[in-house]
Design a protein that fits this description.
It contains 17 helices and no strands. By secondary structure, the chain is mainly α.
Length: about 375
């Protein structure tokens, strides 16, 4: 590696200390990173999570589905959240912004910009109206007469309102994140894989296909998880290649060992599961503090009797609770976003250990210092 190559290398723009870290250190770094970019990360989370939560809550409340819809939605939607989060983290790691700034209102706009601004404002108004309608129907169903929720086909209403929210979120993502070709390709194939992965969960919805869904879940999901673990870090590699092709080479892909994946994956999965439980408990406490029913105790509180407690009935009530389904999706996506950030830093740690990125950065900065003398 020559000094001239080091001087112009994109690794010089790195904004975090490059040094070997343990998986626990990657999790700590992910939490600190999330706190530093809290507003932008929460906007990305809300853009993807809110339509999914609205869809799950609406189906569970007005159609009567159980947790299978929530699981399927979380499995599919989490891919988009993970890909866009990793792409944003990769940009900030190498000196770029988490989000792309919008055009200032005093900036001269072309006709396309004006049409886009009008479309954005129009979709924002419709999305607010759709969200308000869904919230009004939910409140009327829970505390009112239930007539508003009973008007018209409930499934079509929920799908239509959620589709409006998804379209507005997609426009926000295209404005503020604008994924490159590598990211778009990975997002397409990732969503396709997650859809196939969610097939057994969807089959569990119907009595006629429930046995088939159970069989597929027992055999297909473990195999799919093993394959995903083996070909891991695909999103991270695409994100780095989208910044600069030199950050993702075939030699770098071949240098990563299987042990670089299994150990961090095990600890990060445990951390994500713990964070999911903390998020659900926090939502339970917050809702009960302000006087609403909690997602866990709310469905079973009226039926709770220490002398005649039936665990099967309690689990059935919780599984068919719309609030619990929506809470699970919101908490799972939040924990998954933090887990993907930690997984990206685990990938950087593997590159530091295998490709000596810390030494490369030190040599590049020393070359820059010597050239300046």
């Amino acid at each position: 590696m020559s000094l001239s190559t080091s001087t112009t290398a994109p690794i010089e723009r790195v904004t975090i200390p490059l040094r070997p870290r343990t998986p626990a250190g990657c999790c700590d770094l992910a939490v600190m990173y999330y706190g530093r970019h809290l507003a932008a990360a929460l906007r990305l989370y809300a853009a993807i999570a809110l339509p999914a939560v609205a869809l799950v809550y609406g189906f569970s409340r007005f159609v009567g589905t159980d947790l299978t819809v929530a699981i399927a939605a979380a499995v599919i939607v989490s891919k988009a959240l993970g890909v866009l989060t990793v792409a944003a983290v990769a940009r900030t790691t190498f000196g770029e912004a988490f989000e792309q700034p919008l055009l200032d209102r005093w900036t001269r706009r072309t006709r396309v910009d004006r049409v886009r601004d009008f479309t954005r404002s129009f979709l924002t108004a419709i999305a607010c109206l759709a969200g308000g309608t869904l919230l009004l129907a939910a409140l009327d169903d829970a505390y009112g007469t239930g007539r508003l929720a009973a008007t018209g086909p409930a499934a079509a209403m929920v799908v239509g309102l959620s589709a409006i929210l998804f379209v507005r979120s997609a426009m926000f993502l295209s404005d503020r994140h604008a994924p490159g070709s590598q990211i778009r390709r990975g997002l397409f194939w990732g969503l396709l894989q997650r859809t196939v992965m969610a097939t057994p969960v969807v089959l569990l919805l119907f009595d006629e296909t429930r046995i088939v869904g159970i069989v597929l879940a027992l055999f297909w999901l473990p195999a799919f998880a093993a394959i995903a673990l083996w070909v891991s870090h695909g999103t991270e590699r695409r994100s780095l290649a989208d910044i600069d092709p030199s950050l993702n080479t075939k030699q770098a892909q071949a240098a990563l060992a299987f042990g670089d994946v299994v150990g961090p994956a095990f600890l990060i999965v445990i951390a994500v599961c713990g964070l999911f439980g903390i998020a659900v408990a926090g939502m339970e406490y917050g809702l009960r503090t302000i006087g609403f029913e909690g997602p866990l105790l709310g469905p079973v509180w009226d039926y709770f009797d220490p002398e005649f407690f039936e665990p099967g009935l309690a689990f059935s009530l919780i599984a068919h609770s719309p609030l619990f389904a929506a809470t699970c999706v919101a908490a799972a996506l939040f924990a998954y976003q933090l887990g993907r950030i930690a997984w990206f830093f685990a990938y950087l740690d593997a590159r530091v250990r295998r490709d000596c990125w810390d030494m490369e950065l030190m040599l590049a900065r020393e070359a820059t210092r010597l050239e300046g003398q």
